[in-house]
Amino acid sequence: MKRKLRTLSRIFHNGAVNFLRNISLAIAAIAVMVVTLTIVLFSLITNATFTNTIAQITDKIDVSVFLKDSVNSSQTGQLLNQLKALPDVKSIQYLSKTQVLQQYEAQNAGNQQLATAIGETANPLPATILIKPVNLNQIQSIKNFLVEPNIAAMQSAPPSYSGKQETAINRITHATDVLRSVGVVAIIVFVVICALIIFNTIQMAIFNRRDEIQIMRLLGASTRYIRGPFIVESSIYGVLAAILSVIIINVAFVTTSSTLQASALGLLNISYANNYFDNNFWQLLATQLIIGIVLGAVSAQIATHRYLKFKTK
Amino acid sequence: MILLDRVTKKYPRAENQVALDRISIHVDPKEFVIVIGQSGAGKTTLLKLLTREERPTSGKIIVGGIDYDKLKDKDIPLLRRKIGVVFQDFKLLPNRTVFENVAYALEIVGASNKEIRNTVPRVLDIVNLKGKENSMPRQLSGGERQRVAIARAIVRQPRILVADEPTGNLDPKHAWDIIRVLEKINRYGTTVLLTTHNQDIVNKLKRRVITIKDGKVVSDKANAGYNIGHEKKTKNA
């Protein structure tokens, strides 16, 4: 047990010493890992931000039902209950005539003429029910319900699907679905490419030191004792690259968030990305560390394999 | 201690050429044996077979009671730990100091730090490298590197020491220093197998000399001198 611990501590010590003594090779390997891990981190954050932007867009989409003034409160209550019972309804909000007017006045606070005109007449705006669907692609049950004759009779106008933008909404939802899957695929592709680049870099670093491995072999070192320090060394690359990638992204947010926001054309909410990074800092750092260490260690494991084989002929 | 029985070695890439041709050698414990022969005669191949760096095409090898036919891959490191080897090209670890190079041989076998701290300086003293502990191999002369290699080979006090042209790159004075070290180790009970080109050393040592020519043992004599001519094989061991 004591001997095993001694061997383990020597493996770590030798890995750290090798790292310091092969610093130029280490810098090259780390540089490649930093670039690739930064791309991974960037795509993770972009994906999260995009998902959030999509959620915000879809959250703004709702179905408005305009009630006739003649509909009384018990009828309204009944209608609200019926709507709530529909499977596709996420939430409903009832706005009375007065509330709708207040909202309208607030929205047009700058327009003095309009305010005077409204003041001169009785409230012309209908009480309104705002329905948020669970899924934008599935509002059929809501539509069917609203056109039932007894329900239609209570409405002063046909229901509005976000200002009659149904087609546009459908297109947006379709586009966001596609983009979301593209984001996931992009992350997977990036990780695979990164893994290959990192593997190649470490393979080259170990190729440079294949003689060393063979000497150790001839001296009677066990496979584990030879390979261990290389795995430790490559894991150190991974750890440093992960930390540097997080620092780079952080600096990028601090220094360029306003420029980024301007160039994102309103498509991406950069301040959300910034908050997402802050709120999930430790998870993101941990993810980067795990990716860095696993890629480093696995690459070293595979790259040393061929130099550790014994001759069979 | 060392037994080679009708050992043949052909390299896969040169099937027509025989590196070693049915050679049989027997070396007793504590013996000091010199192997001579021209370049390409098969001396290095012989040593590579003993360290299991190469496998024989046919024939039997038994070293220190270990039958190489029955040796599994995972046991090869254990075999190599029992044999001290001095390589012709030193084979020092380039990124480690003199001390660390020698210590590595002990680290492998799980020696304690205290043991390493005590043993390594003593061995470096034997090979006259006191004061060079923290030098890197690239800062040393050829002779000094050779002595580091010897220190590393003897630090585990192996029962068998195999030295491939350890004096090849050295001036006569340093060459004799190395030979004295090998003789000293031999007196402590280690079996030594030395390959060399150095006529003067072979003639003065007066030890058993095995001559290899074209992959065959052409002579095997006790208390012999340097002669790589065509001699009749005489049984000695």
Task: Please give a structural write-up.
Helix content of chain A is 73%, strand content 7%. Chain A is an alpha+beta fold and 313 residues long. Chain A folds into two domains: 2-57 and 172-305, no CATH class; 62-161, Alpha-Beta Plaits. The longest helix of chain A is centred in the middle third of the chain and has 42 residues, at 166-207. Chain A is elongated. The mean pLDDT of chain A is 82. Chain B is an alpha/beta fold. Chain B has a domain at 2-91 and 159-221: Rossmann fold. Chain B has seven helices and ten strands. Chain B has helices at 43-50, 76-82, 98-108, 113-126, 142-154, 172-187, 199-205, and strands at residues 2-10, 18-27, 32-36, 58-63, 66-67, 83-86, 160-164, 191-195, 208-213, 216-221. At the A-B interface, helix 1 and helix 9 of A face helix 2 and helix 3 of B.
List the helices and strands and how they pair.
The complex is a heterodimer of chains A (313) and B (237).
Chain A: H1 2-21, H2 23-60, E1 63-67, H3 73-85, E2 89-95, H4 97-107, H5 112-120, E3 127-133, H6 140-146, H7 149-152, E4 160-161, H8 166-207, H9 210-218, H10 223-263, H11 270-279, H12 281-305
Antiparallel strand pairs in A: 1-3, 1-4, 2-3
Chain B: E1 2-10, E2 18-27, E3 32-36, H1 43-50, E4 58-63, E5 66-67, H2 76-82, E6 83-86, H3 98-108, H4 113-126, H5 142-154, E7 160-164, H6 172-187, E8 191-195, H7 199-205, E9 208-213, E10 216-221
Parallel strand pairs in B: 3-8, 3-9, 6-7, 7-8
Antiparallel strand pairs in B: 1-2, 1-4, 4-5, 9-10
Task: Jot down its keywords.
heterodimer; A: 313 residues; alpha+beta; Alpha-Beta Plaits; 2 domains; 4-stranded antiparallel β-sheet; 73% helix; elongated; B: 237 residues; alpha/beta; Rossmann fold; 6-stranded mixed β-sheet; 32% helix
β-sheet strand percentage of chain B:
15-25%
Sheet with the most strands, sense and barrel status of chain B: 6 strands, mixed
Biggest sheet strand line-up of chain B = 6-7-8-3-9-10
Strand order of the largest sheet of chain A: 2-3-1-4
Structural class of chain B: alpha/beta
What is the architecture of the domain at 2-91 and 159-221 in chain B at the second tier of CATH? 3-Layer(aba) Sandwich
What is the average of the pLDDT values of chain A?
Answer: 82
Rg of Cα set of chain B = 18 Å
